[in-house]
Amino acid sequence: MGNLLLRDEGLGIHAIRSLQSRFEVSSNVQVVDGGTAGTSLLDSILGCDHLIVADAAHMQSPVGTVARLAGDDLSVCFAEKQSAHDWGLCEILLQARLLGHEPKVVVIAAQPADIESWDMELTPELSAKLPEVVDYLVEEIVLAGGQVTPRCLPR
Amino acid sequence: MSRIVIDPVTRIEGHLKIEVELSGDTVVDAWSSGTLFRGIELILKGRQPQDAWLVTQRLCGVCTHVHSVASVRCVEDSGKVAIPANARVLRNLLMGTQWIHDHPIHFYHLHGVDWVDVPAALSADAAATTTLAKTVSPNAPAIDFAAVKTTLATSTKGGQLGPFAGGYAGHPAYALSPEENLLLVAHYLLAIRQQTKAARMHALFGAKNPHLQSLQVGGLTCKNELTSAHITEFKTLLTDMRDFIKNVYLPDVALVASRYKDWASIGGFGNYLAYGEFPETDVEPDSFLFPRGYIWDRDLANPRVVNMGYVYEHVTHSWYDGTSPDHPAVGKTNPKQTSYDTSDRYSWLKAPRYGGEPMEVGPLARVLIAYAKGVARVKSVVDQFLASTGLTAAALHSTLGRVAARALETQIVADAMDDWAGQLQAGQPVSSTGTIPAKGMGMGLSEAPRGALGHWIDMVDGKISNYQMVVPSTWNLGPRCGAGKRGPVEEALIGTRVADPARPIEILRVVHSYDPCLACAVHVLDTSRGRTFTVHVA
Questions:
Q1: Active site residue: B19, B33, B60, B486, which one?
Q2: ipTM for the complex?
């Protein structure tokens, strides 16, 4: 997830693009560019057992820190009152829960350097961390029962 | 790790701040402020015009497709590129899908807590709700209301309202019975499930959702997806959506209208503008289902003709350099933030004006303009609603009118989509080839769910030299103009009575009825009692 127009806010989108250029995934894995949209992701979420999200996150960590968040790390986001006009991942997960569906959620997050400038490229700090984010994603996909195959290098 | 924000507030366009001044319990002045700079125009400079839509669609977190449509149209306009009939129909279907996706979400999920006291539903009698449902919406799917109560009790355990946060539980302004509250909560859950069907409709011809990928200058790229199997699947999903709209959404809106009749005289404005949408032949704008036009000062007897030369954006009270209004074709984006000062500059939104006047855009504008022009498919649906609720056409100039118009146009467009889907021709071209000039200008108009949307492009050496977007929320929520006239929401709030300034649900009803694409915080200044309330709400 992320907004491609706001620099490091687009980390999640850059990450899945990089993932897809480096690897092929098995047919039980759906890679979704969730972009800025909230509500329209519900269909995908209702159809999955494991949800692996790549996103920028404020973690009070040094810029570029990559972290795997799950379980209690994410509970604060469910407790916080959110605005109904600012629907994001948490609201959609709550909606899915209301419909009786609770996928296992893991967020691969990186601490952004800049999410305010209008720019479609990552900062150098986060750009350097992109391979690490993708490695985390690959590991999670495999742990969840997916298969990931490196693509051949272009001749 | 003490706190994690996964969804930075910057993900969507930004936040809205509403400040009102009360005298006694009545709003006597109001200021609407967008608190985040939108710099997309600057990003587009120097890029290929043909790529602009892929960038503009990333702007918004709710209706991404509409910015794609306006963008390809402004580039097509620069070279007078015509699109084939199949492309026109497909674009109508994709835009229509956006409307029927967004409007129920607004009613149930964004505006709902302004009318429905969710925790009060827990005290409803399930059997009585079943009886009520048979009266309110006899053709809606049967629901196990006891199970809904259990779900609600579980999801709101410990006072956590989760997705229902944002209302004012127990506020005396709520007028529904416990059973009516439960019925609407149950339909809220139904609406969640339903929206995934609209998302699938989009994906069938849009390659993916969110952020559809199948547009291009000249038409679309989905020729191989336009198969009879896909058309049939689209129609099946559409039928399902139409059933939901007719049997659930419309009856619920009628129920809310009947319980909140006082809101038919609160929060009205009076000037309306629509660019028009849904060309049904290649003659534009004459073939639009919702016509282009404007209405001045509630005068439904005299719908007027729009001249786009009269659209100007003012920046006198906005955080941009200078004070002279510009036509968007030559508009500038020179940010210059100063302090938040309601007597000077106080918003990142510019103030669009038509002939110097503020204009409301959106469902109510579209429906009233079509109604005033006597469009049969609109008039019959509106008249039927007025007859069933006992409201008059004049009552539509109101908060309730906005809620009703949104629902009515959802039905109108969904019905029209059924005709359009029948016009799709598998195997026929979905795009044309046209030439874009290396140097030139273009204007792309459309109707987003929230209202009139315009993109303006200026190109030099085959690259974008200037790009301006005037979006619906700017029309509705913009600040005062150079002449000091309030924007539509600012004006609509005047006279609204607020029972409890610490829980200003009345203000939220007015503001949310416009479906702002910005999250909203309200600041209430009570001069008569020397008190100030700052309330952060959904």
A1: B60
A2: 0.79
